[in-house]
Design goal:
CATH topology of the largest domain: OB fold (Dihydrolipoamide Acetyltransferase, E2P)
CATH class of the largest domain: Mainly Beta
Strand content: 35-45%
Order of helices and strands: EEEEEEEEEEEEEHEEEEEEEHHEH
Largest sheet: 7 strands, antiparallel
Number of helices: 4
Amino acid sequence: MMNNMMLRFGKKLTSTHSNQFIFGSGLILNQRNVKTDINKISRGDIIKDGPNKYLQIERYVFSKRGRCNAIVTVETVDMLYGKKISKKYRGGESVDLCEYTTKDVVYSSENNKGFVFEDMKDGTEYVASKTLLTPEMTQIMQGGFLKKMVIGIDEETNLAVKVMFPTALVSTVEETEDPISGVPNDRHSPVTKNALLDNGISIKVPGFIANGDRVKFSTRDWSYVARATEEDEDDIEFEDESSKYEDNESVEEIEEDENAEDEEDNKRR
């Protein structure tokens, strides 16, 4: 479905500048440089901050004081190492944004560099950092409960910089308390209980759920969604991380009084 589709932070590309380099093996690698105004970034975007350094934006603050230039502070996470990094830019400054191609893959193995994935189309192997997956995702993936996954490959370095997990999964309830009598068959029921799924994940389920039931649950917060239907069994959706965020959740604008700076200077005198 999404195999080999070029994405720019989960959106189709419109235009870009590209140079091609041909290696001895005949492999053509596209080097793409996309400069973007820091004021136009969104949460979930990935900044390339030097060789093999990919910073995904989690939060950013625009601040302006008097007649001074605006300052943009971004809180990021290093996609390959999981480290939190804070950076500041001048308003209007350009940054390099990472472009990537998506590949439909299956989990293959694990080595000292990370998780190894195999391209479902041509068998090419890609290694992704272990920090790109949560412990729950890793458990499900290594347990063989996924038919496929989607990864994002940086066009310039051929590194896996994104791992896109199914937004929801269907599993069998392996162990839970007996159904609670009098509980309405409603997902919004206030009466819940713990349930262990066949993939080893524990979630909260409504009181009417019984052992052996097939349930659909969200992989965003590991919450119960509904009893699974036949359509749910075959319907697997992938969503890029950036599309989970609403811009207004992560943007903070601070604008100080134009005279604030002058008043501060006068106090110092």
